[in-house]
Prior knowledge:
The structure is a homodimer.
Chain A: H1 5-16, H2 33-48, E1 52-55, E2 61-65, E3 74-80, H3 93-108, E4 117-122, H4 137-143, H5 148-151, H6 162-168, H7 175-178, E5 185-193, H8 198-202, E6 206-208, E7 211-212, E8 214-223, E9 227-228, H9 239-257, E10 261-264, E11 268-271, E12 277-278, E13 281-290, H10 295-298, H11 301-316, E14 319-324, E15 337-338, H12 341-354, E16 358-360, H13 368-372, E17 378-383, H14 399-416
Helix pairs in contact in A: 1-3, 3-14, 9-11, 12-14
Amino acid sequence: xxxxxxxxxxxxxxxxxxxxxxxxxxxxxxxxxxxxxxxxxxxxxxxxxxxxxxxxxxxxxxxxxxxxxxxxxxxxxxxxxxxxxxxxxxxxxxxxxxxxxxxxxxxxxxxxxxxxxxxxxxxxxxxxxxxxxxxxxxxxxxxxxxxxxxxxxxxxxxxxxxxxxxxxxxxxxxxxxxxxxxxxxxxxxxxxxxxxxxxxxxxxxxxxxxxxxxxxxxxxxxxxxxxxxxxxxxxxxxxxxxxxxxxxxxxxxxxxxxxxxxxxxxxxxxxxxxxxxxxxxxxxxxxxxxxxxxxxxxxxxxxxxxxxxxxxxxxxxxxxxxxxxxxxxxxxxxxxxxxxxxxxxxxxxxxxxxxxxxxxxxxxxxxxxxxxxxxxxxxxxxxxxxxxxxxxxxxxxxxxxxxxxxxxxxxxxxxxxxxx
Amino acid sequence: xxxxxxxxxxxxxxxxxxxxxxxxxxxxxxxxxxxxxxxxxxxxxxxxxxxxxxxxxxxxxxxxxxxxxxxxxxxxxxxxxxxxxxxxxxxxxxxxxxxxxxxxxxxxxxxxxxxxxxxxxxxxxxxxxxxxxxxxxxxxxxxxxxxxxxxxxxxxxxxxxxxxxxxxxxxxxxxxxxxxxxxxxxxxxxxxxxxxxxxxxxxxxxxxxxxxxxxxxxxxxxxxxxxxxxxxxxxxxxxxxxxxxxxxxxxxxxxxxxxxxxxxxxxxxxxxxxxxxxxxxxxxxxxxxxxxxxxxxxxxxxxxxxxxxxxxxxxxxxxxxxxxxxxxxxxxxxxxxxxxxxxxxxxxxxxxxxxxxxxxxxxxxxxxxxxxxxxxxxxxxxxxxxxxxxxxxxxxxxxxxxxxxxxxxxxxxxxxxxxx
Lengths: 420, 420
């Protein structure tokens, strides 16, 4: 019972040709001709191995291998097939191919599964396409948290809203129809490239995830007054002074909350950004990460920010605005996404048996698995990613490394799909 | 007795043709072919009105109209004839033309002068050419504060040191020969475009200067540690936290020093400047302006900065570097350059007589007048500058506005050059 490197390579190389930017990485935007071509290829491959293929109202493709007990909850495996502009061939796609190859091996070896198994190939995972907060769209549609409002909110680079783009593509956006009863799902497993340097740097084959930190994103803007450097200190409205106060107050707040949360101001832009002038305007990004669910019961982050802002406005005479840049319909910040512990242990054992090295990596960007983790036992398998590069034409994972991840998925699913 | 608008226009338009970037503003870099052409034109014009012309070791041109008392101290009038890259036709040049036109009127009207009068046309005023701290070079050579070291320090955009560029241009840089006995100078008057928006915005003809704030410039660099936004708060070395602490500590220090000084952080650059990462590096500009000489007796700014830095390094584990970007051989910050009060009053009266509106503008960038103000009674006349733009091809002053400034210079010099 083995996965086939040739088939894996063929899948990835074929899917990489469905791009609107040949020679400049993979550009397979949601609701494009290229995404349609990739979907058609995946459906055809699923049909070849006898899967029952269907597509939902949001262009998520499911390929079902019926279980001995058709009424038992389903094991779902897969990822997404859309990409950013000038992205790589692995982000998302690798996880879809992993699921496809897993069920090919099942079919080839007549492996019996008590629980039904479904490949899931999702669209619209990349938040870049329709802007901040718009990502992991199809998994949100599946669990039922995507909203009508969101479909009309932001536009893609062609000036179309999500609803408009979907209609043009031939879909009728029906939120109700796309919802799935998650109580009838046994588990979700997603393989993904690491999008970080850890596995490669430490020469480790497999990354396993215990939890992914929750996230909250904010932009804070400071509106001061333009003056030259001889202006009296008394009457200044210095946007950078106000921003500095916010940065330090945030730091203090988060430090006081203790271990389960971090807060980072990683970006600051000042205008006019000249040594000769009092900054008229400053904006900073605030990124909150949560590792402990309970920390969010102790504090309302946005309310705390508002208190800090009120104090700063009084002290500096600078007007401060705060804007949440979170996933729509979700609390900001979100709680951490906790993966299924038992399955992490199972995967570790499988790695040992297969003689693969593994490590825990509790780091990652947004994934559909973060969405499902709230509803069903969820796990991720990371494979090495050259120099941690992703969302770029240089994104690369050696096919042999990817195959190891798929072997782990195969053995995990083989174990989970048995009765008892 | 009147200045001639035609001659003024002709001077400026002719000098504007001596540029290495025709059609893209005036580029008349120090020690270039274009600066030689401008200098030759000025010498010729000076000779036409019978001035005794000579050039010093740093290519400053003097045109002397002898006084009834040749041993009486000299009134010097003028400015500089070099420009930045893609600058305008007025910055510096307007002041040289003002001096030239003043002595033309003297000659035309046989005005007697007890005190000798000299036009000064300086080179190497623009600090851009050889980098920060290298400006107002010829006035510094004249008063004797330019150093040998500086000639070999920084390079122009052609990779030449000041000494190399001067030699190529045919000069023998002789600091001793360029020094002038400032006790034999009665006063220095410089006309300059405002390089600020005040006169135009308030529709006022003439700006008079009581003092120009002294200046101190520093770059502060913060070296932290690159980590992602999930990194524990405890062990971070956040360059932006350290920079914020510096910004607020500086603000407090300067506020405590009271009225005679300001401190501004106008520029901040952070790396990698991404919402997802703890800033690894930050750099900020610090600009100190002094309006009161005595404030610098109370405090050693650099020592205070070092105390702040020591505290921040201990608190944040971020390494902090500070670099002075001041004029070489000068204290950093410099004390304010105080102009001659009596002459400001005289100029105000002249404006009234001529029916010109005037205002005091104690703002300005670096000028040769700042250097001479420490040694001899010095004054400046500002003329309006469209939208305050300078150092740019769009720099513009209406010729009629410039003529008013030259009339004020003419009447001032006429008054000052009489005995008693």
